[in-house]
Amino acid sequence: MPAQPKPRKPGPRDTGAYVPEMAARVDNDLNLTDGARRCARKITEYVYRKNREGREAEITVTYLMKALGRCRRTVQRYLRQLEREGYIGVWVVPCERTRMCFGLVVRLLNPLLPRHRRHKWPEKAGNPDATPESQINSSRLKIRRVPRYVWDFLCSQGVWRSYMKTIPPLPSIL
């Protein structure tokens, strides 16, 4: 007797979004998992829509979790794989008031892009006479970036201080 077929989920709605041209190197890289490849495509799609001239965008792990249907740790592992292999650069965007972060700035690096698009992607449809200062979110261009390893160090300082408080002082020899 054949097994019962799994109930099918509804198909995704057509948003008009698409993945721009990418280098085949990502698909041929045996050091990446299939999920990391899919994550690279999703990041490329997002950057293409948000900031195709600068080739970087602010993105959160939560957005990638929902887009890929994976847990937070899996998405973080995908990002580390892509960063380790040189496809993306990742910086943390810290909050000015608290010790938390807003999200990540992900920059697409040259190995992810095809050779004929490494200099420039096709222009975005829009008014070519508009000045860059007329953009609504012009203040978002002035974000502070912290490399991931520095952010790890800053976050561990609170734990280190409380650990040092628990160590009893050394007895004086004199």
How does this model look, in words?
The protein has a four-stranded antiparallel beta sheet. It has five helices and four strands. The radius of gyration is 22 Å and the shape is extended. The protein has a single domain, classed as Winged helix-like DNA-binding domain superfamily/Winged helix DNA-binding domain (Arc Repressor Mutant, subunit A). By secondary structure, it is an alpha+beta fold. A hairpin with a 6-residue loop joins strand 2 and strand 3.
Topology:
Blueprint: H1 25-28, H2 34-50, E1 56-59, H3 61-68, H4 72-84, E2 88-94, E3 101-108, E4 146-147, H5 148-166
Antiparallel strand pairs: 1-3, 2-3, 2-4
How much is the average pLDDT?
Answer: 82
Please provide the ordered H/E string of secondary-structure elements.
HHEHHEEEH
Shape estimate: extended
Strand residue percentage: 5-15%
Task: Give the CATH class.
Answer: Mainly Alpha
What is the fourth-level CATH superfamily? Winged helix-like DNA-binding domain superfamily/Winged helix DNA-binding domain
User: Which CATH-level-2 architecture?
Assistant: Orthogonal Bundle
Helix and strand composition category = alpha+beta
Supply database-style keywords.
alpha+beta; Arc Repressor Mutant, subunit A; 5 helices
Q: What's the quick description here?
A:
Helices cover 35% and strands 12% of the residues. It is α+β, with helices and mostly antiparallel strands and 174 residues long.
